[in-house]
Design goal:
This protein is an alpha+beta fold. The chain has two domains: about 170 residues, Orthogonal Bundle (Hypothetical protein af1432); about 100 residues, no CATH class. It contains twelve helices and six strands. The chain is globular.
Amino acid sequence: MNEFFNRDEISVRELLAPNTKALQMYQYLAGSPKVQSYLKTANRMAVSRLGYTDHGQVHAEVATWNALKAFDILDETFQPNIVAEEIGDTDDARLVVLASTYLHDIGMVVHRTEHPQASLSLAIPILESKLVEIYDDPAKATDILSFIAHGIYAHDDDTQCLTFEAGITKIGDGCDLTRGRTIIPFQKGKVDIHSVSAMAIRDIILDKGEKPLRLTVVMDNPAGVFQVQAVLEKKISTSGLQDHIEIEVMVNGNRLVLTQVKRLFRVQIEDPSEPIGVKEK
């Protein structure tokens, strides 16, 4: 295994079949100067001005890659809402997940506060012209746009996802927790429980489990449990998919019981003498 997960090597293109609508949408977004400029500027706001983690081009790629991986695993058990509601097929559902995940943070160009709403306002004009080009039926294009809009809006931690597709977008976003996402703020001196915890996480592996999606969080030390609890579990809790996801924690090759680790970690951070520098198929 590499020393740590390299976020810069992730490529959504590898997960997309040729001659699909999802691929058309990805090529459009990845090649759009406006979209890429929004992502670059969003990252300037997040990292340079606020000292937050990456919210730019690499995050868009990694979150979308995670979301499509989760989609492929859960699609074997569940029907996307687009399919269940007889609006489209699995390719349409993948397009929705891809677009909503890729664009979910562009509203950071405005502000962190209420950025899901800002992302929605900026994304709709970008998407409308392409969806009309992909879909011959304007009504279907509008239906697809409404699914993407819900996915963007509902990626916020406290907003309940009401579609399978939106839940997958939220999972993809939440799984971008590895140290590469926070390394720049950390190196600039942002040393708090959030950055220390994120720096402890080396990889998050999405694969099949009993529930049926298993998320294996690989850490160098138990500090990473804070990030799992504060970010990943919170997003899962409002994804609508929480009963179908299991989390495993590996610390230096040893599997730990997450509830026990969190109990131990909670004691450590509460002790001031120990400061821490849908429908089934």
